[in-house]
Design goal:
The chain is mainly beta. The protein has a six-stranded antiparallel beta barrel. It is elongated. The protein starts with a helix and ends with a strand. It comes from Geotalea uraniireducens. Keywords: Signal. This is Peptidoglycan-binding protein LysM. It holds the Pfam family LysM.
């Protein structure tokens, strides 16, 4: 009986607590002190079970001037649905920054490339060959159908050689300069040579993702499925999303996009970019004197293949819908 009365009194006492105080207690965070080796990616995965939350963490914490760096001793507030970093105190001389996100062991951060990625065909690009005819002059081919190519022994071809089949789509222009960057290319399937002459060959379609037809061009086949590991950023790079892999206007997580950065700009597979969208002041409440507002982080992409001046990237996180013309940025680890 005494225990029951005590429990009732306890509940009555709690019921008279001020509501704001009760809410504050429920929202009280756990504080974690950042250690050497921590990364925004790892902290997001550890505390929220979502490694891709880190763009939100960066965007909501303006004290992280360079999003690639957090420091030992920084205090992280862990809430059930979010993470917050306390304002940074002046750093003590001699304290080194924690490793950047992209400097984590590459074996732990890899992305699967399926082989269905397209690319932008730039000026000067030359395929290995072309499908010049089909059995019974069929315009659409599928798996196990016969095709003829302009690849022969004089080109180094042998019976059994395998090629990937591609198709050119529409031209892609830069969203800012309107300069034509190339033609969007989609993969159609694979074929294997069965008979080889000096200047041509007969082939069988071994796999068709889409319908194959005359005029489709060929590239030497390479093993498609492989892992792309994150690579440490060794330079600053900034560019734009110029098109999606499907040609659709709305881009989300898991989609492929094309960037206006390639080998000539120092692009490498495994580079990790933030997707940013500029924020403009509402003219009803501010004029240009307020200066440029910090960009909004809306996602992240990983580069999977590179051309001379363009590259193909996988969208690994989209907080909001991504569009052609959104900016991408990578900061060198400092």
């Amino acid at each position: 009986m005494k225990k029951l009365l005590s429990a009732i009194l306890c509940l009555m006492t709690l019921s008279f607590l001020p509501l704001p105080a009760a809410l504050a207690a429920a929202d009280e965070p756990t504080v974690y002190v950042i250690q050497k080796g921590d990364t925004l990616w790892g902290l997001s995965e550890r505390f929220l079970n979502d490694p891709y939350y880190w763009p939100n963490l960066w965007a909501r914490n303006p004290t992280i001037g360079n999003p690639h760096f957090i420091f030992p001793g920084d205090r992280l507030k862990v809430y059930p649905d979010r993470l917050e970093i306390e304002p940074r105190q002046p750093r003590t001389a001699g304290v080194a920054p924690v490793a950047a996100l992209s400097e984590e062991p590459v074996a732990e951060r890899t992305f699967q490339v399926t082989g269905s990625e397209g690319f932008l065909r730039e000026d000067g690009f030359k395929p290995a060959g072309t499908i010049i005819s089909t059995a019974q002059n069929r315009q659409l081919l599928g798996t196990d159908d016969i095709a003829y190519t302009d690849i022969g022994r004089l080109h180094g071809a042998q019976v059994g050689d395998r090629f990937s089949i591609y198709k050119e789509m529409e031209q892609v222009s830069h969203p800012v300069t309107n300069v034509i960057l190339g033609e969007r290319v989609v993969p159609l399937g694979t074929l294997q040579l069965t008979e080889v002459d000096d200047k041509n060959s007969k082939a069988i379609i071994t796999r068709a993702y889409q319908e194959v037809g005359p005029g489709s061009f060929l590239l030497p086949y390479r093993e498609k499925r492989h892992q792309v590991a994150l690579r440490a950023a060794d330079k600053d790079l900034s560019g734009y999303i110029v098109a999606s892999g499907t040609g659709n206007n709305l881009i989300g997580e898991g989609d492929l996009v094309f960037l206006d950065l390639g080998k000539r700009q120092g692009m490498l597979p495994g580079y990790f970019f933030y997707v940013l969208r500029e924020v403009t002041p509402d003219p009803r409440y501010a004029d240009i004197s307020v200066g440029k507002l910090p960009p909004e982080v809306i996602g992240a992409v990983v580069v999977v293949t590179t051309g001379e001046n363009t590259s193909t990237a996988l969208v690994v996180k989209s907080i909001d819908t991504i569009y052609r013309g959104d900016r991408v940025e990578m900061k060198k680890s400092r």
